[in-house]
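$ ./design --mode recover --in tokens.txt
reading tokens...
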């Protein structure tokens, strides 16, 4: 069971996401019907450690075993998506890009159940002009921390 719930005031999500970088580029994805790019990952299940959740989500989304390397950011975000107000806690892990992922090219598509994920490698500089979340990473990608940092932001 995902640690995610809706109320009359909005929704709460607990997520884990991967910051996968290679050669000055970040792996991002966009799903059909979602108006922005974001990082691979997903919701944590009740009783599941966040690192295990991220490894599971990356297997589901990318069909590849890709363990998280180290925690970079803990972020509390408040945003509205498709008319719903969200309160989200997300752990962002740096993750190595293995050769089998790089061989898929600059962009590729994966189908997970009924979801179609469009992945692409984006140059760090290009993030600034994109509709991309988390917004803070548009700048912080240039200077990733040596130890975990907490970030709180309201994107509305």
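writing sequence...
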């Amino acid at each position: 069971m995902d640690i995610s719930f809706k109320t009359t005031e909005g929704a709460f999500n607990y997520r884990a996401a991967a910051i996968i970088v290679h050669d000055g580029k970040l792996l991002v994805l966009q799903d059909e019907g979602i108006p922005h790019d974001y990082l691979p990952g997903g919701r944590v299940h009740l009783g599941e450690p966040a690192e295990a959740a991220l490894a599971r989500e990356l297997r589901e989304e990318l069909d590849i075993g890709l363990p998280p390397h180290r925690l970079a950011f803990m972020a509390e975000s408040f945003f509205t998506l498709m008319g719903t107000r969200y309160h989200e806690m997300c752990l962002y892990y740096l993750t190595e890009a293995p050769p089998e992922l790089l061989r898929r090219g600059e962009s590729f598509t994966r189908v997970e159940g009924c979801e179609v994920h469009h992945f692409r490698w984006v140059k760090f500089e290009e993030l600034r002009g994109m509709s991309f979340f988390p917004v803070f990473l548009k700048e912080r990608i240039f200077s990733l921390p040596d130890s975990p940092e907490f970030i709180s932001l309201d994107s509305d």
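exit 0
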